[in-house]
Amino acid sequence: MLLKILNCFFWIFFWNTYTDAAKYPVVLWHGMGDTCCFPFSLGSITNLLETELNNTYVKSLEIGGNIVTDYESGFFMHPNKQVEYVCQELAKDKKLSEGYNAIGFSQGGQFLRAVAQRCPQPPMKVLISLGGQHQGVFGLPKCPSLKLHTCEYIRRLLNYAAYEEWAQQVSVQATYWHDPFQEYKYKAHSTFLADINNEVFSNGLYVDNLKKLDKFVMVKFLNDTIVQPLESQWFQFYKAKQDREILPLESSKVYTTLGLVAMEKQNKLVFIETEGDHLQFRKEWFLKHIIPFLREEAD
User: What family does the Swiss-Prot or TrEMBL record give for this protein (predicted)?
Assistant: First the structure.
């Protein structure tokens, strides 16, 4: 009888542990003006994930191997170089070999999408984009940086020289600057976003690899004062030659050329909106709306 009782308790404990655990490790990529490990930002997110997902492995990406380079990379290291670096880091991490889920914060959202499209091994399972700018930005009203002069420099650069070759190389934000009044210049000279959005030429591998995701979750912050237009967080953007009216995703070329239409038919696209400014959310909201995608039952 005692053996049966102990066996019962074992299975109750095992079941609770199993269902609270993450099926896959989690990879995080921070946004502009942040680093992998600030205790008040991604450091706290790492701790929260480890607590809620039964000590699952969480890898918060540190570009360049130290916190200074990691911070500077968000402004000055070309996204193509960052993505290449991250792909190498993920490939050699044995804990990720069976697959992983990913959360991108702000520009980290589109950077991780580039990882999914360019580097299918190890396989990314769920991509969660928190405030990512998947159709780029046209405006930088509030620039998150520890140094005010950095923001002023970036604003001037984007306003006057975003599509110059040298600007594309020295400013991360220039590589996803999307000017609706100069669509031809954007497509011809954007060295990152236009490519991963299949606007330069149609890359079938990008489509195939993105469609391998189980879920692509996009979170839009309704009171965002940093991302313009905020609809870019849902893969939408202005209609050409103006900056007021938003073109529905279903009417945009990228909906087809990147395979998003097929993903939507397979219920792989998830659109979530929340009140608050850029990346401003409460723990309770995160637990309710994000954690379930990282757990076993999310499938």
Answer: Belongs to the palmitoyl-protein thioesterase family.
Distance CA 286, CA 42 (A): 13
Active-site annotation holder among 41, 189, 224, 232: 224
pLDDT score recorded for residue 65 = 85
Burial label for 90, CB within 10 Å (0-12, 13-18, 19+), is buried
Residues spanned by the domain of 58 = 19-297
pLDDT of amino acid 286: 98
Q: What is the DSSP string of 223-263?
A: T-SSSSSGGGGGT-EEPTT-SSSEEPGGGSHHHHHTSHHHH
CATH number at residue 145: 3.40.50.1820
Residues (pLDDT < 70) of the chain are 1-21, 140-157, 296-299
How many Cβ atoms from other residues are within 10 Å of residue 156's Cβ?
A: 10
- Give the model's pLDDT for residue 160: 77
* pLDDT number for residue 12: 38
Based on the residue annotation, tell me whether 106 is a catalytic residue of this protein: yes
278 tagged catalytic: yes
Residue 6 lies in a domain: no
Predicted pLDDT at 156 = 66
3-class secondary-structure state, position 172: coil
- Residue 27's pLDDT is 98
User: Which of these is catalytic: 41, 106, 129, 190?
Assistant: 106
In a domain, residue 235? The reply is yes
Is position 139 within any domain? yes
